[in-house]
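Prompt: For my understanding, could you write out one protein's sequence and backbone structure tokens?
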Amino acid sequence: MFYLKEIEKSIYIGFITYSNPVDTIAGKTISIYYAIHPNYRYQGYGSVLLNLFIEEMLSSYSVDKFVMNIKKENHASQRLALKCGFQCIFEDDEDWIFLKDGTRKKTL
């Protein structure tokens, strides 16, 4: 698990859990599941947590794709996925599947 914690109050703001990398035709893929404490929602902590997690996975492991399965009615998580660079690749009556490429952006 990957945690985001408020140091001064020793309160966990949120966490991410994930699957072991799975070899697919698209390469090594990780499924991501996350939660943010209700007192810290809608304050940007979700995107901080998700972006830190992705950076850590890219620097520590060889990951090609990240996947999030989000319920159709969970608009906040859909916005988070889009904000963090995921794209919706599949939707049905209950779930939307979001995918992000594991390629790191090069900076000068």
Notes: The CA atoms of residues 72 and 93 lie 7 Å apart.
